[in-house]
Write a structure and sequence with these properties.
The chain is of the alpha+beta class and about 550 residues long. The protein is about 45% helix and about 15% strand. A 4-stranded antiparallel β-sheet has the order 9-16-15-10, covered by helices on one side. Strands 13-12-11-14 form a 4-stranded parallel β-sheet, sandwiched between helices.
Length: about 550
């Protein structure tokens, strides 16, 4: 008697198990790596992507490309996450990490076909990763962060592969200035560098790339509240920053006031006016020249401030306010009553409002030792500006890494080749089957110099053979010149990469490949969330319905 067929999973779920799942994952990882393989190195190609709104993205930044691509395969989604992690952690190497992870997956395929257990492969990979990081440590050498020309070299080698390298050293200068500006010494030899919060990139279409600059202060897209009567240029301003409204508070929802006498109405209005006048008097007592508030500012308040000769700006973003506070040394105050002389910022040299294009921009500049800055980017069109901004973010990331961990490695595929050579030498000492996956990591690392050579359009096999020969002689700084495809000493060429980027790339790629190889079952088409079963419409009164608070009440 045959057993009756038992269905455990739902009929319309798709399930892949064992070898099929692993081969599917390897194919997906390779497909993602192939998409962006041509964007590695100085002679890289650009990708043009149409997003959902019909806008165009023109870029060769690995992360920006993969962010726009919509993929269905779960392993491909995991690969795309890698480049995002790399971008958030170190800011550079987003393309390399995907290519490397794709190669590691590809090299595991022969082992899986020969029935080597995935755990054995992963063990070999992990051993190779530990040794690889140790080899990187031995190759790395320290750098003086204060030597500007050396720092420029590093940033230029990061930008060499990008669209912005045709503008010369401008972008590198911007990145260095911005990082030096927001760098805060913690006192124990370490630095706190928060570029995201305190270095804001302002993109203004028009003008030429040469007009880009880092301000010794901040700018924001706001005009003063009373353009005719308040001054638009103040030298050595005393700046007061508020986080409270300078208008009379309205009731939260509904406020009912019963008035019996006609005069009471006038008294009510007078009380409102007096409260505002009181606030303005408190402000004027500290003699500020500029008052900036994140909330509203009523017409009456504007009138009183104008009478006192104080310039005001309202409804400023919280982040912009924080930057002004860092730049001019002011403290943001939550109530006017609490404001004291020490809260006033006096480090700014000039406040001015300028009209650029159709908009007004306020500048708080010439600050002494500002700890926040704005980077102004000018360029021909929006697309160019977006790409330059992406490149600048990468450059700032690299500068930040070097400032936090001042160790360097040779670029141009030299350090991958050196690690590959050292791992292959060491593979002979490893016992058991793990030796082969270990060797595979060594072979996989050659994918970076190989792709560099491919993108230059030169004979790949000859170049790689020459490169291997040089490394066999122990010349660890020999790599490929990305512009000409010749084999050169990276020390002479001045192409350096931060240690943090290289180490992170290797770790992320090998760990991700190991994780994907250990998947042996993919179930897709599980429960759909949010869809009620058919036939059940409406909700009973005691059921809780989730309401999006933002959209619940129409304005």
């Amino acid at each position: 008697m045959s057993q009756p067929q038992v269905f455990v999973l739902n009929q319309n779920t798709k399930r892949e198990t064992g070898r099929k799942a692993q081969e599917g994952n390897i194919a997906a990882a390779k497909a993602v790596a192939d998409i962006i393989r041509t964007t590695l190195g100085p002679k890289s190609m650009l990708k043009m992507l149409l997003d959902a709104q019909g806008g165009i993205v023109l870029t060769n930044d690995g992360n920006a490309i993969l962010r726009e691509i919509d993929v269905a395969h779960p392993a491909a989604k995991a690969m795309i996450e890698l480049s995002r992690t790399q971008d958030e952690e170190v800011g550079d190497g987003t393309t390399s990490v995907i290519i490397l992870a794709g190669e590691m997956m590809h090299l595991a395929q022969p082992f899986i076909e020969k029935d080597v257990h995935p755990t054995v492969i992963v063990r070999g990979y992990m051993k190779a990763l530990q040794d690889g990081i140790a080899i990187l440590d031995s190759l790395a050498f320290p750098i003086d962060v204060n030597d500007r020309s050396q720092m420029m070299n590093i940033v230029n080698s990061c930008l060499g592969t990008k669209f912005a390298h045709r503008f010369g050293g401008i972008i590198s200068e911007l990145a260095l200035d911005a990082v030096n500006c927001v760098k805060v010494d913690r006192g124990d030899g370490t630095f706190d560098i928060d570029v995201k919060k305190y270095a804001k990139v302002e993109k203004i279409p028009g003008g030429s790339i040469e007009d880009c600059r880092v301000l010794k202060g901040v700018m924001f897209a706001k005009d003063i509240v009373n353009p005719g009567r308040m001054s638009r240029r103040i030298e050595n301003p005393r700046i007061m920053l508020l986080d409270c409204p300078l208008e009379y508070k309205k009731g939260e929802s509904q406020t009912n006031v019963e008035i019996t006498k006609e005069e009471d109405w006038a008294v009510l209005l007078k009380m409102e006016e007096e409260w505002i006048q009181n606030q303005c008097d408190m402000i004027a007592a500290l003699k500020p020249d500029l008052v900036v508030t994140e909330k509203g500012l009523s017409d009456l308040c504007m009138h009183y401030l104008t009478k006192c000769g104080i310039t005001a700006i309202r409804r400023l973003r919280k982040t912009d306010n924080n930057r002004i506070a860092r730049a001019c040394g002011a403290t943001i105050v939550n109530r006017v009553e609490e404001c004291t002389e020490s809260c006033i910022g006096t480090k700014a040299g000039l406040f001015k409002v300028e009209k650029i294009g159709d908009e007004y921009f306020s500048f708080v500049v010439d600050c002494e030792d500002p700890k926040a800055c704005s980077i102004i980017l000018r360029g021909a069109s929006k697309d160019v500006l977006n790409e330059v901004e992406r490149n600048l973010t990468d450059a700032i990331g690299v500068t930040r890494n070097v400032a936090l961990e001042p160790k360097l490695l040779p670029g141009g595929g030299a350090c991958e080749m050196a690690v590959s050579k050292a791992l292959q030498d060491k593979a002979d000492t490893i016992e058991g089957v793990e030796q082969w996956p270990y060797r595979a990591v060594a072979v996989g690392l050659e994918v970076i110099p190989r792709t560099l050579a491919q993108n230059c359009g030169i004979n790949v096999i000859r170049t790689l053979t020459k490169l291997r020969a040089k490394h066999a002689e122990g010349q660890t700084t020999i790599g490929i010149n990305g512009h000409t495809g010749e084999i050169t000493d990276m020390k002479e060429l001045g192409v350096w990469e931060p240690y943090a980027v290289k180490a992170q790339t290797l770790k992320t790629a090998v760990e991700a490949a190991s994780m994907l190889l250990r998947i042996d079952d993919i179930v897709s088409g599980g429960k759909k969330r949010g869809n009620a079963p058919q036939g059940k419409t409406g909700t009973s009164p005691d059921e809780e319905v989730e309401v999006d608070s933002e959209r619940a009440i129409p304005e």
